[in-house]
Design a protein that fits this description.
By secondary structure, the chain is of the alpha+beta class. It is 21% helix and 35% strand. The protein has two helices and 20 strands. The strands form five sheets. It has a six-stranded mixed beta sheet, with no helix packed on it. The chain has a five-stranded mixed beta sheet with strand order 13-20-19-15-16, with no helix packed on it. A hairpin with a 2-residue loop joins β15 and β16. The longest helix is centred in the C-terminal third of the chain and has 37 residues. 15% of the residues are buried.
């Protein structure tokens, strides 16, 4: 019996030692450090991380700032800019491509076309990579794409419209006005990036003097996206007939013929003009027939 009790005590002592050693192993502090890429999604306390671990925000890669307009309108001959704003570009490259012929125009800051009117302009402060087009012409209108050299490449398309200013006078090229009525010449200027600073009116090549003794002559100009200038001549006289030209300082001039009628009918005047034109045309035809006849006689004599 004593041998059994001694054996049980010995087993209990061994069991206690074994249990104690296992408990110590479990309670020892961890030395495991997770990989750095886990920091993007894990919930580790930043205070517990080593100071030499660099913690970067999640990198979404390069992308376009689409706040700028996709449509750009430029005036013929005036430098055009297509602005492409790229965020998080990193070590990628920005290129410009013309959709019309899929021609590569620029890569980075270098021009990759023989047409040196195309240039790349980089503004680091704004992350802008602009395509500069010198002396644009209507044929330069079309779609251009700003492209980032990712895999696969990503692009942002913009449309360039190159327009030429247009000047028109309502009702031209001939206006017929009754004596004593008011002449209202309306000159409209379209497709300008900004209103023309000055619009000059002339009568038969001479600048109109609004303070002349004749009186009753005034001009009203409304500036905006479309600029309109109204030349008003009250109590029209026959001496007010002639060529009136509207000349915007930044656009082409336009001329209208004003006929102040003194009891005449516009149809009669137009008929007279048509008769004179027919006479001139008939004279030209007779001259051509005469020349052909002379040439034919000379050819017959040679044969």
């Amino acid at each position: 019996m004593k041998h059994i009790v001694v054996m049980m005590i010995f087993l209990n002592i061994n069991y206690g030692i074994t249990s104690t050693s296992q408990t110590v192993d479990i309670d020892e502090p961890h030395t495991y450090t997770p990989p750095k890429h886990y920091f993007q999604t894990s919930s580790f306390d930043e205070a517990d991380l080593d100071d030499d671990v660099v913690k970067n925000p999640l990198d979404r890669g390069p992308y376009f700032d689409i706040s700028a307009s996709r449509n750009v309108t430029a005036l013929v001959g005036n430098t055009a800019y297509l602005n492409c704003r790229v965020r998080n570009l990193g070590n990628r490259t920005v290129s410009w491509i013309r959709h019309r012929d899929l021609h590569l125009l620029t890569v980075g800051k270098a021009t990759y076309t023989s047409d040196q009117r195309y240039q790349s302009v980089h503004n680091p402060a704004l992350d802008d990579w602009s395509l500069k087009v010198l002396y644009p012409q209507p044929r330069d209108s079309g779609v251009y794409e700003c492209q980032i050299s990712t895999t696969p490449p990503v692009g942002y398309s913009m449309t360039l419209s190159v327009v030429e200013p247009i000047t028109t006078i309502v009702g031209g090229p001939d206006l017929y006005i009754d004596t004593g009525s008011t002449v209202n010449l309306t000159c409209i200027v379209r497709h300008l990036p900004e209103p023309p600073p000055v619009i000059l009116w002339t009568h038969n090549g001479e600048e109109i003097n609004y303070d002349s003794a004749r009186g009753g002559v005034s001009v009203i100009t409304e500036k905006g996206d479309i600029t309109t200038s109204y030349l008003l001549i009250q109590r029209a006289r026959t001496s007010d007939s002639g060529k009136y030209t509207c000349t915007p300082s930044t656009a082409n001039p336009i001329t209208v013929n004003v006929h102040v009628l003194n009891g005449e009918h516009p149809a009669a005047i137009q008929a007279a003009h048509l008769q004179r034109s027919n006479l001139v045309l008939s004279g030209c035809c007779c001259l051509i027939l005469l020349l052909l006849s002379l040439l034919n006689d000379r050819w017959s004599a040679v044969r």
